[in-house]
Specification:
The protein is mainly α. It has helices spanning 12-44, 49-57, 61-80, 83-87. The longest helix is centred in the first third of the chain and has 33 residues, at 12-44.
Length: 99
């Protein structure tokens, strides 16, 4: 590895474009995954395709209300956890460990 310093390093712009491309790739995979899960649930629950299309293309107030209800239930579950269990995920201290 003594010749590594001779290799051309990417410019800041090249590095930024690469990072953006990787984030877009990851986002695309997540969206595809969510879409696949939604379709699988529709098939498993025997939901009529026309009804699913109406829900997805109609007034989104039902979807927003359903999402709000899910978030409210998640909050209740998280609030009911013992303090020790919550500490593992919600700890408050500086992670800047400069020495």
């Amino acid at each position: 590895m003594p010749n590594d310093f001779q290799q051309k390093q990417p410019t800041k712009n090249e590095q930024m474009f690469y990072e953006i491309a990787m984030q877009m790739h990851d986002l695309d995979k997540r969206v595809w995954s969510i879409s696949s899960h939604m379709l699988a649930l529709g098939v498993a629950l025997n939901i009529d395709a026309k009804k699913m299309a109406e829900i997805l293309t109609g007034d989104d107030s039902k979807i927003r209300e359903y999402a709000k209800n899910i978030n409210d239930e998640i909050k209740k579950i998280e609030d009911a956890r013992p303090k020790e269990e919550k500490h593992e995920h919600d700890h408050e201290h500086d992670h800047n460990h400069e020495h």
